[in-house]
Design goal:
By secondary structure, this protein is an alpha/beta fold. The chain has two domains: about 300 residues, ABC transporter transmembrane region fold, CATH 1.20.1560.10; about 220 residues, Rossmann fold, CATH 3.40.50. The chain is about 60% helix and about 10% strand. Strands 6-7-8-3-9-10 form a six-stranded mixed sheet, with helices on both faces. A four-stranded antiparallel sheet has the order 2-1-4-5, covered by helices on one side. The two termini are about 45 Å apart.
């Protein structure tokens, strides 16, 4: 919950109560006017002014409450999105993502965030005002009109929320089933969308369509059951309690008037005010759709926030170790996935301005080691120092910001080339972008495009070749201005021409930049001054002459993109 969320909800509830107070003023004035006619006296002009002003205030307050609740709900939802994603990023730093984590985040940041915002900023203020209104009205009747009628109605007021709470318990299971079916449908739909190409290649389109149709029907069925129960409750509660409150208030008012305890004006006013006692009943439908769904979504998001790992910032931040040990130092580093040790006892010192290559068979832990260096994978034990920053003490963002990385398969966001370059340096000028593109040997390709820097790259870079996308990723690393460059097999999924261009671009990097490469390519190895092999979870220096055929088993036989 955002810090301002309760304050905003109270604001909307206060405006709702202002609307109720103005409406009550109008009803009292009308009751006095009608009663005055029956009793033979004429009201002063003040009562008619009260009708007009009260009606105007009630209308303005109703519109204001509706507008405020809508704006506050959107603001609440917008505040939840980055918090949900922040937990995802922090979780990714401490452990690999779960298979269903993407689907879970989409549901949390989408449907759940919307339901929570509606629950907190629309339903909750309305319910606060609705439950407060009967109490205030009964107190007004008790003090200003007839103490006995007011007292009896006040005693009956708790019956409505008690009944609503009972129905909530009765239909909680049905509401949970509806949420589960909706989550399953969302997950399967997202899975189908993200694998459209594979589904077509395997000819599984009809099967997936049938599966989605069945899941959609299951979701529809649970929603209809929930709505059917909702309608039954609305009919019962509205019919029973509306009749009970209206008949009781009217009967008591009539009896008290006939016995001479109150005037006709007071009796009519009590009957008119009894309409406001039904405010909680107007929220019954919202209780089942917004209230139950919003409460469950709030619990789901709260559980997600509780799962967020502790950040390094909570332990304190240190700017530098000041030991001058080099661009990067790993000391007795161990990394585990579950019960398996991927790396253990790794020691490595990489001097400033060096060229270091890391080799090893596939699955040996090379990319894991690079993840430790980038700060995206904290080790289970050991010390990691990047550009003088101790990963145990410094903020995770500072460690990640000390280096730039280029992965095997680059990630480009839907947008323009300039947008993707600006990710590394939001304040970069067009000339700086062109210079980075020239360093990555992609400037001519971009210049030949009709919109140059403003050319769209498509979803996941689909409008570019694999080689172009990888060189743009390299240009993005250059544009960041960081002096540590981490390359995870940058030429493994590109054509021969792009591979040579990437190798040439790396060879031109100055001695002021430290380069660490994970590779199976002999031509990239030729650029390295130091070579290490990852084997059996340890790191062994081998030198360029010690590289074996197993280290290069993917060199020329690997499929090209």
């Amino acid at each position: 919950m955002s810090p301002r969320s309760p304050h905003r909800a109270r604001q909307v509830a206060a405006v709702h109560l202002l609307e109720v107070a103005a409406t009550a003023l109008v009803l009292v004035a009308v009751g006095q006017a009608v009663g005055g006619r029956l009793e033979g006296f004429v009201l002063g002009p003040g009562w008619y002014w009260a009708m007009g002003v009260g009606g105007g205030v009630a209308a303005v307050a109703a519109g204001a409450a509706m507008g405020m609740s809508g704006r506050h709900a959107r603001a609440e939802e917008a505040a939840l999105h980055p918090r949900v994603l922040d937990v995802l990023y922090r979780r990714s730093l401490s452990a690999p993502p779960a298979p269903d984590e993407g689907d879970r985040v989409v549901i949390l940041a989408g449907d759940n965030a919307e339901r929570v915002s509606e629950y907190r900023q629309v339903f909750r203020p309305d319910m606060i005002a609705a439950l407060t209104t009967p109490v205030l009205v009964c107190l007004g009747i008790l003090i200003g009109l007839d103490w006995l009628t007011g007292l009896v109605l006040l005693v009956m007021c708790p019956l409505i929320p008690t009944l609503i709470k009972g129905f909530l318990k009765l239909f909680r299971k049905r509401s949970s089933e509806s949420r589960r079916e909706r989550a399953r449908l969302t997950a399967r739909y997202l899975d189908a969308i993200s694998n459209l190409v594979l589904i077509r290649m395997l000819g599984a389109g009809q099967r997936v369509e049938d599966d989605l149709r069945q899941q959609g029907e299951a979701n529809r069925g649970t929603i209809m059951k929930l709505l059917a129960g909702n309608q039954v409750v609305i009919i019962v509660v509205d019919g029973l309690f509306s009749l009970l409150f209206i008949v009781m208030s009217a009967g008591m008012a009539m009896t008290r008037w006939q016995n001479g305890h109150i005037t006709a004006s007071s009796a009519i006013t009590i009957v008119l005010l009894s309409v406001l006692l039904l405010e909680p009943l107007h929220q019954v439908a919202a209780v089942f759709y917004i209230g139950m769904g919003g409460k469950a979504s709030e619990k789901a998001i709260s559980r997600w926030f509780d799962e967020a790992p502790q950040t390094a910032a909570s332990r304190g931040s240190v700017t530098s170790t000041g030991d001058g040990s080099g661009a990067m130092m790993l000391r007795d580093v161990t990394v585990c996935y579950g019960d398996s040790q991927i790396l253990h006892g790794v020691d490595l010192v990489i001097p400033h301005g060096s060229r270091t290559a890391i080799v090893g068979r596939s699955g040996a832990g090379k990319s894991t080691l690079l993840g430790v260096m980038t700060g995206t994978l904290p080790p289970h034990c050991g010390q990691v120092v990047v550009d003088g920053l101790d990963a145990e003490m410094a903020e995770a963002g500072a460690i990640r910001g000390a280096s730039a990385s280029v992965n095997q398969r680059t990630w480009l966001f839907a947008g323009t080339i300039a947008d993707n370059l600006a990710v590394a340096n939001p304040h970069a000028t067009a000339e700086q972008m062109w210079e980075a593109l020239r360093r990555a040997d992609i400037a001519d390709d971009v210049a030949s495009m009709p919109r140059e820097l403003n050319s769209d790259v498509g979803e996941q870079g689909c409008l570019l070749s694999g080689g172009q996308a990888q060189r743009i990723s390299l240009a993005r690393a250059f544009l960041s201005g960081r002096k540590i460059l981490l390359l995870d097999e940058p030429t493994s999924h590109v054509d021969m021409d792009s591979e040579q261009r990437i190798i040439d671009a790396i060879s031109r990097i100055g001695d002021d930049t430290t380069v660490v490469m994970v590779t199976h390519r002999r031509r990239l190895l030729d650029l390295a001054r130091d070579v290490y092999r990852v084997t059996d979870g340890t790191l062994v220096p081998v030198g360029a002459d010690g590289v074996t055929g197993e280290d290069l088993d993917r060199v020329e036989s690997e499929d090209r993109v």
